[in-house]
Amino acid sequence: MKFFDKWNKGKFSIYKSEEKTVLKLIENINNFIGKLAKGIDETVVNLTKKINTKTDLHGDHKGSWQGLDRPTLSEEGMRATVEKLNNVDIPSLNNQLLDNMNFYKSILNNTQKVKGLTHIIAGIDSLTNGAGNTNWGKYFAPRIKGELGNGGLGYIGFENATVSNIGSWNISGVSYISNLDPSNAPAKYSFDNKGIYTENATGTSRVWLYLTEKNFKYAKVIYLKQPGGGTFKAQYIDETDGVLVDTANDFYDLGVYKLPINEYPHKGEISLDTITGKVAIFGVYLYNDEGVIFSKIGKGGDKLSDHNKTDASFREKWLDILQPDIFIFNGGANDKGTLTPVQFDTTMRNYLTPYINKNTNLILVRQNEISGDTTLKLFEEKIKAYCKEKKCGFIDERKLLGETFEIANSLGYMIDTVHPSDVGNIKRANNYLDYFGVPKIGKLDDDIKKLNVSSLNYEYKVKLSQKQLSIANGETKTVYKIGLVGGYPIGIIQLNIFGQRTGTSCAVKKTAYGVVTNATTRNSAQSPADFIIKEEFEYHSDGIVTDFTLTTAKVNNHLEIYLSPNTGTSAMNFFVDGEITLPTLTVKGQSVFEN
Fold first, then answer.
1. 3-state secondary structure of 135
2. Got the DSSP string for 253-320?
3. Angle 422-435/101-113 helices, nearest 10 degrees?
4. What is the pTM of this model?
């Protein structure tokens, strides 16, 4: 095995190197690569023997790189390691950083050699967890597990958005930790601001977990030990050998209960029931003896600042339990309106320090927000500086999908100005697979041809359908049910409303202006429009004022717009037309949905 089996100039570089620097670096490497190659076979044999003699250092993850004397990404550490193993003098690289793709590839190769586990964690927001029913992990995980073995489902934090990705659940009498301030207990002790809790349960509260994929051997339930803690019963559904877990403790700590080996007739369905008293259960960790584990943490809309509010010392406790080898960190896109670049840098460093302390290999991703936001450009500079300092991996997905939204969208890679489409996520998955030296999924061009690219474009100004309707006095009718494309758009609504009192020539015309917003879920709305009404004219011949009332509400994540006559006893006929403008979108296509 070669440490430097290929050099991808400009492809997965740690930071933007000038061409001369890259060429000089290659020259330096070529000067010693011959001597290094002579002893490398013997090195691998000795290193493998060394790994095999340390199977007790990693708990259940026997044989994994975690906790071993593995090479690090630091220049001095890499030099010292190779010199020690091969007694080869490596010339100075003038403090330049090596492309680390082959390092991460070597982690996977060696864990495969010793039949251990490699745990990859990725997060922390919708750029990892996905939007529009797609994410890159759904293509990445099956492919890498198919090559290196299925290590299990990994960590599953208890939250609807997470559980729905791996099956379903039946819960009763519990509350969600995600609704709490992450600075306070029990949320501050969670790994990813997920979990369930009770304050004074009476024994009827429960969590029943039904997993679509049941291919795991071991299951650990991770809960909070706390003063005054209650109890819960842990077992597989329909089993009778459950254990009552007591969560009471003199101080706050993480508790782990390991279920019996998951084999027939358990079928992978987990029951945590008879919850009594004050209890917090964060999630379950599901794994096998060997292979690759891929755990996604966080959810759409998550902020780095909120994840950083969790207790850093507990984050290290979590890492001792989950033992990740690699953390692919893509976070901060949702902090652009609340953190300055300096605050982002401080927050990022504080959040990642426990990973550094536990020797987790980091790959940092430049947030894939390509609408031209200047704050994220400044965030990017902080990320690159951190990667250079800590010798982390760095991936800029804008270079992968397109430097601008117009470019990426024209290729079918986006569903909005922030989130990649299914095709875009296939391309992202292939990028990560290539990073780890795993064969790609297939020809991306063929996948694009199967889609109607024009349907993936979005229009910044949309004419609403014209409506003609009759409404009786005292009745309210819905005129529109509106949803917007995801990616935090702002829609400016203009409605032209003409109302006539039935059977008369009395009429009124008004123009209504309002604003509606959305977050990341396609075809939904986050806020009802507060309309400003401008009266254009009113005409009546019999002394009866003709008027109507316009109201709105958020129902089932859509903006509903209603009209009601205000004419005493008479019904009204209405004609309504209008448009919605989304000024942050710059290309045409569907961006407004009438439901």
1. coil
2. EEEEEEPPP--TT-TT-EEEEEEEEEEEEEEEEEE-SSEEEEEE---TT--HHHHHTS-HHHHHHHHH
3. 70
4. 0.66
